């Protein structure tokens, strides 16, 4: 038998055995390797390695020198800075739209935005007052059902900038507040708000000065002029200043020789004091006229509130408050003019009559008041109720044959 040429050699190995052998050898090498060799091996690349780390203290020259490094932050601008000219232009545009009822809601919201942004200042308060004057151009618009809430919101915001207006403007604002705030509070369904509004009306009536004979005369003349204007007739009025000033012919008759011209140099010393006195007198006259207009507007606004309150006398929880309010107005009737006194007298007579009916147990319609039990008792007094409940409930005998 011939000798085997492969005798003494290891058996042939497959690819799988070679891979396992290489893994075994690498494992034994790592086991016997030193720690320095392991630390020198680079770590595997991860996704986090692509992110940029924060610079160390020594990397930034500003930080190494001890200087403060400003940090960049993202900030959003929440306000818009408008110039004085832009604010005034906005007020003028709102003024042209706010007097239109269909545009009042949107225009009033823009005006409130100007107030909340602090754009209304004493320097431009005259333009904003013109805006409010346009809103109150119609005396009855503020009490319209569709505009009450918007008027109330606008003039509630105006109270926060009351210090920006002059004394004369504050007086006019006070009359507008009565119509836009107090009068609209009388339409509420909240008894607390209603009572508070009635208390404001009582205080305002108590602060009115007594009406004089001149006030009655001016009112009568104003009513006569209004009636004349409605009828279409035109009356000629004579200017008192032109009639009081003498004509040229009258001057020549009083001074035919021109001696008054010779006395002018001697009277020049008193020209300046007389000018100051005349200016002070004119200012006093203007203030008195303005005060009269303010009191007149106050009386008209309070009378409007009394009429609005009287219309709600049908509501039970309003009746006691209206009784007290009307009695207070009647007790201070001398603070109103002649026509207003007549209106308050009629109003008090009507409320007093209804108050007497309430004491007698009658409602404002004249019928006797009754509670729920009495109302049900009267309702079922004439009803026909069957012992069979649902069968023949109205008393008819349709089911007798069916029942046998």
UniProtKB/TrEMBL annotation:
Region (Disordered): 1-73, 206-253
Composition skew (Basic and acidic residues), residue ranges: 18-32
Domain of life: Eukaryota
Record's compositionally biased regions (Low complexity): 229-247
Record-given protein name: Uncharacterized protein
Organism: Platanthera zijinensis
